[in-house]
Amino acid sequence: MDDKIQATLPDEKVLAESEIDENFKQLFKQLAGPDLEISVTELQTILNRIIAKHKDLRTKGFSVESCRSMVNLMDKDGNGKLGLVEFNVLWNRIRNYLSIFRKFDLDKSGSISAYELRLALEAAGYRLNKRLHELLITRYAEPDLALDFDSFVCCLVRLETMFRFFQAVDVDRDGVVTFDLLQIRLYPSDLARGRGRFPQTRFDPPDPV
Q1: Which of 88, 98, 122, 189 has its C-alpha lying 20 to 30 A from 67's C-alpha?
Q2: CA gap 39, 137 in Å, rounded
């Protein structure tokens, strides 16, 4: 029998600006510039500069698409950019992903194999069935069937987005959700942030790829 699909999503509780460390606030000001917000392209530059310093990680760098997915997930006010609090949440999330990646890179290759990915996903709170696991490998792995760090982060961000989307519309928690097709096309970002509600049409959980 195939594994049951389960997800324990990261806590959405965020710190108030007054609770954020002063050193982090100064770092954010330097990174964000005069408008004190971080755009998709600015996030890409920041993450690629940081990841380039970690020589033990195999990576091609974060793509614009990956960074846009991160911004969409964390952008609670819908302006397409990350403010201080939103960036703080993402920063801590990526630090946690890095810790998981290094822990389950068992052979210290700088990448995550298919076997290591299953262990890493479970540590991150995702228990997936064989079919979804194979889909993730197909979508995010390199030709050697291993994931670079940037692909690993993108995979986790997409998983969280899809599970939050599903939980937002599964109001009775029965594992089956309903929606109007036109509305799902109009409001995907609201769904990812848990703000959408839809009328009755049967819909099975989406694949996170």
Answers
A1: 122
A2: 29
Domains of the chain (ranges; CATH) run 13-203 (1.10.238.10)
Cα–Cα distance between 88 and 122 in angstroms, integer?
24
Encode pLDDT of 159-190 as tens digits: 998 888 777 767 777 777 666 655 555 554 44
Distance between CA atoms of residues 166 and 180, nearest Å: 14
Contact in structure between 42 and 28 (CB atoms under 8 Å): no
Q: Which residue has the tokens 């846009």?
A: 68
Q: Are 153 and 66 contacting, i.e. CB atoms less than 8 angstroms apart?
A: yes
pTM of the model: 0.80
d(CA 179, CA 11): 26
Q: Are the C-beta atoms of 177 and 169 separated by less than 8 Å? A: yes
d(CA 49, CA 61): 9
Q: In terms of Cα–Cα distance, which of 132, 125, 118, 109 is closest to 56?
A: 109
Burial 137-174 (b: 16+ CB within 10 A, else e): beebbeeeebbbbbbbbbbbbbbbbbbbbbbbbbeeee
